[in-house]
Amino acid sequence: MQKWSRVEGLKNGGARTTQGRVYQMVSDVKQDQAIKPSPVDGLLDFCARIGRTLMAFLQVTGRLGLFIGESISHVFRPPFFPKLVARQFMDIGYYSLPVVGMTALFTGMVLALQSYTGFSRFNAESAIAGVVVLSVTRELSPVLAGLMVAGRVGAAIAAEIGTMRVTEQIDALVTLSVNPFKYLIAPRVIAGTLMLPLLVLIGDIIGVYGGYIVSIHKLGFNPNSYLTQTWDILENMDVISGLVKAAAFGFIVSLMGCYHGFNSQRGAQGVGAATTNAVVSSSILILIFNYVLTQVFFS
Amino acid sequence: MNDVTPKLELKNVKKAFGPKKVLQGVDLKISPGKSLVIIGGSGTGKSVALKCILGLLHPDEGSILIDGRESVGLPPRERDQVMHKFGMLFQGAALFDSLRVWENVAFGLIQGRGVDRRTAYDTALEKLHSVGLDESAAYLFPAELSGGMQKRVGLARAIAANPEIIFFDEPTTGLDPIMADVINNLIVKSVKQLGATTLSITHDLASARKIADEVAMIYQGKIIWQGPVSSLDRSGNDYVDQFIHGRAEGPITDDIKARV
């Protein structure tokens, strides 16, 4: 009976090595049993696996750190490509407006409805305006806008740059004496960082308006008192913290899209994986940094 | 004659990816104005060697001399000056999807060298004419072109800045035999007009015979034979013989069997 078995860490008739995998074709089960690793080998194997995972993690972290450093340095160093930045303003900012606007509108509307359901039990309906405006400006608008833009823009950036990588267009840029960090990465990072706060500002207004519509037309609130309550409870810091978060999220989304696209592996599968990784990593980072920034602003 | 500084010289260039040693000491010389073609099977290190020369990959060891000057480890600004000497035709043409044909051809002039758009446009049209394309093609996008036309545009882009050294990566791959010959002729014509030195990598022997002054064969990360194209058929090297005759049996397949 022919059988393939993979033996890790064993080489030269059982002598232990620290590197590589040895693939051996074993002709029968007896031989297979003869080279079965001992418990000590198993433990070493386990440690080696942890070591490899740690090394891989450090490698990715280091590579990402260098990528971020290089990207930021090219944002501030000439030559600049204003036309490309303007195009990215349109792609990342203007074309994301419908999706961010719709998200903010319905979030504000749902928030008013749900708050009413809860607060009416304690006769605290008057707090709805405050809950809507604070939730929208501090948390929901920046986080949801960030996540929506991660899905729309982060994926598009990773797919575009990934395709450029696998079709050698990035190599072509280098051979034509154009730095890909300046030409591809910097415009996207600038546009992402500057455009998301604008989107969030618009999202804030639309979100509050969504709560207003439901409160006035469905829940029967007085328009003037609703607006007065909204205005009274809102402070500058509520809006500013949301905008700062938005800038951080825009930076994360554009950078993750660029990083994964730039390091895309060969083939359609590689580009697909880069796109997925860009969206997943930027979404997770948005949630983590949202907590960190909230802690910084309001602790 | 031997005193002439080679336009491009590789000395003991090594490159590995993890445990996989792709280049194991490549030595190569190209005299000014000469055309060298590197032949070899897939995975023998042709593309990696080319990418090391272009600075897209950093060799682990060895030196790469351009006009007698070391180009490995140059700071970015000096690297840019070296890159200005280069032109490159990629295997899949690598045209920028979002730009029109003329903008692709003029890209290096406008973005890389700061030439104004009007002058760059005129140069692009002139180069497009020289590869057999007229003004009507200039405003198309790469996706609207056939494979052969994309290669022509890629060639026009490679020669747009009148480079001193032009690299061709599998210039005829994916083309029908007639279009492949057309591209070969265009390469020969363009190179003659410019007086450029060229380095090509291919496994298309018809292409190699047409465009080469000299041929080198790479095998297992080393140059195992180099000589004039006229002596390719009597190289006296069994590996070269098997490769150029496309035989299934020979030392290359014996090595593969031995490794398995």
Automatic annotation (TrEMBL), chain B:
Keyword Repeat: no
Ranges where the ABC transporter domain occurs: 8-245
Highest taxon in the source lineage: Bacteria
MF-aspect GO terms: ATP binding; ATP hydrolysis activity
Keywords, alphabetical: ATP-binding, Nucleotide-binding, Transport
The keyword tRNA processing is assigned to this record: no
Record's protein name: ATP-binding cassette domain-containing protein
Species of the source: Micavibrio aeruginosavorus
